């Protein structure tokens, strides 16, 4: 199937209904049926169970439990770097936020920082001419999300939206994809400097969760916000901060100033959690 046709089909799919059904299947405790589903998935996507803390697929009561599985201690050593990669996955895009507020999505497509963070102009201004990185998690990847650096959580924003697939083909075919899909915007501060980690939802992503809130329930209404100024959540570099119930994408925003991405990074390149992402003395 051509990329253009696959994207066109998505415009007509019942995204919400498909995602609700996938969520039910993923949380189903079906005994032998669940085990067969997990074994099929492992074979279909080549999932490496040797690095899982629990390598026996029969031990997982639900598909969600398998999909958000923990890894063995030491499976993802943390590099000595100011910013480390927060996930396993592939590099979609990274670099400078151009023209003050434009994030590069794919050839021919950009979107604004303000749209990404749910329309908050004041928050978006804090990243004018800053830096971004977009990382895609495929179905075979480890799906817990970790802190690229230590930080204190200030706000969390849930932005309702579409549920397009977030694979590379869709990123090339749907303008403003990451600012159109449902997303959870997590605003942190480190050494007085702001940075943002956005969890982007997608078709059949059952839900998204953070370690401080748990599962973020879907809402089809207005943007919702949680303020943590009076009850700050402090997380260390490499500590788990959230997870996807089925795969998706993370987008990070960093403020203007010196930031040098890993010289080995390139669009499409594979990455693992804990590998060096960038040097950024202001966030060290």
In short:
This protein is an alpha+beta fold and 284 residues long. The protein is 21% helix and 31% strand.
What does this structure look like?
There is one protein chain. The chain is of the alpha+beta class and 284 residues long. The protein folds into two domains: 65 residues, no CATH class; 201 residues. Helices cover 21% and strands 31% of the residues. It is built from eight helices and 18 strands. Strands 2, 5, 7, 8, 9, 12, 13, 15 and 17 form a nine-stranded antiparallel sheet that branches. Strands 6-14-10-11 form a four-stranded antiparallel sheet, with no helix packed on it. The chain has a three-stranded antiparallel sheet with strand order 1-18-16, with no helix packed on it. The radius of gyration is 18 Å and the shape is globular. The N and C termini lie far apart (45 Å). The mean pLDDT is 88.
